[in-house]
Description:
It is a single chain. The protein has helices at 42-61, 79-88, 122-143, 162-165, 187-195, 199-219, and strands at residues 12-18, 25-26, 29-30, 65-69, 93-100, 109-113, 149-154, 175-183. The protein has one domain: Zn-dependent exopeptidases (Aminopeptidase), CATH 3.40.630. The strands form two sheets. The chain has a six-stranded mixed β-sheet with strand order 4-1-5-8-6-7, with helices on both faces. It has a two-stranded antiparallel sheet with strand order 2-3. 46% of the residues are buried. The protein contains six helices and eight strands. The longest helix is centred in the middle third of the chain and has 22 residues, at 122-143. By secondary structure, it is α/β, with parallel strands linked by helices. Helices cover 39% and strands 20% of the residues.
Amino acid sequence: MAAIPQFLINPKTVVIDPGHGGAGHMGGSDGNHAVSPSGVLEKDMTLDLSQLVEAQLNNFGGNRLNVILTRDNDVNLSLAARANVARDNQADIFVSIHFNGFNGATRGVEAFVRPAPGNVNLADDTALAQRVLEAAFRAIHTRDAATNNRGVKRMNLGVLDDTALGNTPANHPCRACLIEVEFIDVPAVDALLNTGPNADQVRREIAAAIKNGILDDLAVHP
Length: 222
């Protein structure tokens, strides 16, 4: 049996949030945003990728990693309710997974954190976002050099609200970010992730990369 990594001596909790879901709006969260040229919905892609990340983390950490999805079917939760899953489970990490859509041509991977003031652990959130972003970007770039690293950005996103996550200035255990995994309204991205012959494998590689980014962050917060 493999030795337990030092950073998992104390069990950790990771919450993965598949963006969107269901139909209509719910507390700032719309049912769906982006749609691929072949008709695949962002909400379905976020759930699929989140479940792959969940499986990757469970395979690595066993009972030392408590991995929780904010949703495991086609429902929509408010932004606060999504973040509250981290608060209620005293999560160490919260990652919200999304896909972008814009003009059918823009490419790239980007991540978001909540800015200060209003974010009591901005530096730690930014470090988490950078780790997850760079890992996902490398996985995609290996398959398609046309992607771009669009960097870590700051935005007042409700799903990253400190109060909803359970963070306070005195006690802020949960590091949080949102990742936008490419622009699925681009035909080349649709082929890469949905319709191409290697799409299933590519999604698994991206999930493994996100897992690695999360594990890298846990390793510096034992």
